[in-house]
Amino acid sequence: MSLSEIKSRIAAAESAAGRVPGSVELIAVSKVQPNERVEAVLEEGHRCFGENRVQEAAGKWPQFREKFTGVDLHLIGPLQTNKARQAMELVNVIHSVDRPKLANALARLAQELGHCPDLFIQVNTGEEEQKAGILPQDADGFVAECRKLDLPIKGLMCIPPVDEEPSLHFALLAKIAERNGLNGLSMGMSGDFESAIALGATHVRVGSAIFGARAYSA
């Protein structure tokens, strides 16, 4: 599916939900995509991209930024504490703040570096043991803890379980965000972004629908 088709579907979903046109940011998830595919999307004028791993992002985005201005890079995958400094120097937004240890590391680095990317707290809405994220019942306390650290928390992120209705998880995330006075909702991917927009998503993460199947190395 072309980038323009995805953008048209986002605009239609915004309209159907009574949302302001352009209120949803499309993050083109470029993880493990060949550089030529990413460059083609950049050539089309898109500038907001998402990467899962700091190391992979560091390997390609400095070069792309030399060629294309205005790149807005989002880290959407798990962040190890020892990669926090590199992430803060590389990306504009981190969507995966998921534990106190990481929050403290980011706060310490923010003081040292004098800047901090915008941050989203990842909530494990499905309470899945194998998945990162703050449990829903702990989210309010963690938001308060991050605010005490002066971290720029802009919203919440979730990745619903693959075998459950995603809209239930989007609604839960929106409810947690609302009671904490947070406007940002990073939710919705290639297969479910329209229902996420209907429930208030401000950022949708779309990869395979834009780039095609991911090119994992053997």
Gist of the model:
With 218 residues, this protein is α/β, with parallel strands linked by helices. The protein has helices at 3-16, 35-43, 54-67, 84-90, 100-113, 139-148, 166-179, 193-198, 208-211, and strands at residues 25-29, 48-51, 72-75, 93-97, 118-122, 153-157, 184-186, 203-206.
Structure, described:
The protein has 218 residues and is α/β, with parallel strands linked by helices. The chain has nine helices and eight strands. α4 links the parallel β3 and β4. The longest helix is centred in the N-terminal third of the chain and has 14 residues. The protein starts with a helix and ends in a 7-residue tail after the last helix. The mean pLDDT is 95.
What is the element layout, followed by pairings?
Elements: H1 3-16, E1 25-29, H2 35-43, E2 48-51, H3 54-67, E3 72-75, H4 84-90, E4 93-97, H5 100-113, E5 118-122, H6 139-148, E6 153-157, H7 166-179, E7 184-186, H8 193-198, E8 203-206, H9 208-211
Parallel strand pairs: 1-2, 1-8, 2-3, 3-4, 4-5, 5-6, 6-7
